[in-house]
């Protein structure tokens, strides 16, 4: 069940504790220490759960929650607060939060609530319109069909799986190791160019200019980012 979690919290000790605990059970964790940074990260990237503190610098948790829902972010939101007042919980839930946890809390309870949210809320990493469109390309994810300017594009099963992974993690920087593990099912082998070769094939079939790609962009020293 582990997925991607964004922690928006300004207490360094709690950030460290949450990162370590969530990471230890398999979650991929990102952090932001103020409301504005958290809102930007949660809007630009894809997370299954956002752990959102109410009392934050620059923009409080209520504002962040409201703006995330206003921007169409579907991630499950678990709000944290040192205040136990019912009124605060009601406000958060009305603004779009999915659950509420009052500080201090036990890590076991936090994990249980995250697991419950993931059972109730479809993972955002798999949420993409079907069909999904970028440029003159249309991807029908369920039927594994790809067309470009109305013409059928033939992709191998591995090419389609790689394209699907890019679409599901659009906007994220994906390392070659991550792509190998997700698409091929094994960790990166030194000197292999498997990912680079398959990316080059996708670019040739889907990009207007494969030498100056618009959609599958190289992030030098890190990997690739899909900007569809």
Summarize it.
Helices cover 39% and strands 21% of the residues. It contains eight helices and twelve strands.
Please count the helical segments: 8
Q: Specify the structural class.
A: alpha/beta
Instruction: Provide the domain count.
Output: 2
Q: Could you spell the SSE succession in H and E letters?
A: EHEHEHEHEHEEEEHEHHEE
Q: CATH topology of the largest domain, what is it called?
A: Rossmann fold
Write down the Rg. 19 Å
Give the percentage of residues in beta strands.
15-25%
Please tell me what the overall shape is: elongated
Indicate the mean pLDDT. 85
Topology:
Layout: E1 4-8, H1 12-24, E2 28-32, H2 35-44, E3 49-53, H3 61-70, E4 76-81, H4 86-94, E5 99-102, H5 107-120, E6 132-134, E7 137-140, E8 145-148, E9 151-152, H6 157-168, E10 173-174, H7 176-184, H8 194-206, E11 216-219, E12 223-226
Parallel strand pairs: 1-2, 1-3, 3-4, 4-5
Antiparallel strand pairs: 6-7, 7-8, 8-9, 10-12, 11-12
Helix pairs in contact: 2-3, 6-7, 6-8
Describe the structure.
- This protein folds into 2 domains: 4-125, Rossmann fold, CATH 3.40.50; 132-226, Winged helix-like DNA-binding domain superfamily/Winged helix DNA-binding domain (Arc Repressor Mutant, subunit A).
- Helices cover 39% and strands 21% of the residues.
- The protein has helices at 12-24, 35-44, 61-70, 86-94, 107-120, 157-168, 176-184, 194-206, and strands spanning 4-8, 28-32, 49-53, 76-81, 99-102, 132-134, 137-140, 145-148, 151-152, 173-174, 216-219, 223-226.
- Helix 3 links the parallel strand 3 (49-53) and strand 4 (76-81).
- Helix 2 (35-44) packs parallel to helix 3 (61-70), helix 6 packs across helix 7 and helix 6 (157-168) crosses helix 8 (194-206).
- The longest helix is centred in the middle third of the chain and has 14 residues, at 107-120.
- The model has no long low-confidence stretch (mean pLDDT 85).
